[in-house]
Amino acid sequence: xxxxxxxxxxxxxxxxxxxxxxxxxxxxxxxxxxxxxxxxxxxxxxxxxxxxxxxxxxxxxxxxxxxxxxxxxxxxxxxxxxxxxxxxxxxxxxxxxxxxxxxxxxxxxxxxxxxxxxxxxxxxxxxxxxxxxxxxxxxxxxxxxxxxxxxxxxxxxxxxxxxxxxxxxxxxxxxxxxxxxxxxxxxxxxxxxxxxxxxxxxxxxxxxxxxxxxxxxxxxx
Length: 221
Hints:
By secondary structure, the chain is α+β, with helices and mostly antiparallel strands. Helix content is 43%, strand content 11%. It has helices spanning 5-8, 24-35, 48-53, 55-63, 101-119, 128-135, 146-162, 182-185, 188-202, and strands spanning 39-40, 67-72, 77-82, 125-127, 166-168, 175-178. Helix 5 (101-119) crosses helix 7 and helix 5 packs across helix 9 (188-202). It is elongated and about 65 Å long.
């Protein structure tokens, strides 16, 4: 049940000198969204109901920082991104993540696996060996530094793990669950376009890959 508007904004003193107005649990939601990379019902079961309850209030607070709230109630995932302010000059709070080519094709592959798992009603689980096998098709046939190529793949995996896109499965050394956050980062049109481009590259064609959608650090990557 939603709290009345005046109750949500009434002063709540939590510590000496506190001038805030929000309840403790609502502040925790804001901190998680700002700290990133995301808030989801699986990892944050106590925060998700608060986000749903206070969504309008949290959106207003984020707007004051020129941030948008992206939320998917079906998958229970939410994160923040810079608001599109048009020609208005605004400070940028979130850092942009720089994606390498290997980062891009790895994220696309993970997104496709997530879609397949959803269609089958299964958890999206993948192993490091499966990722490496998929990525190997993009290694140049003339490449003589295979160890260096595999090192770059591992670096991409570590970057994606850092942003919680890959979440390690308990009691497993090399298997990860793919975060549903990726559903919000890639549209169906973007997936189809990039899949065609990367397939042509894998077939040896000289093409320029289309850029992936820009993402903020706190939004996953």
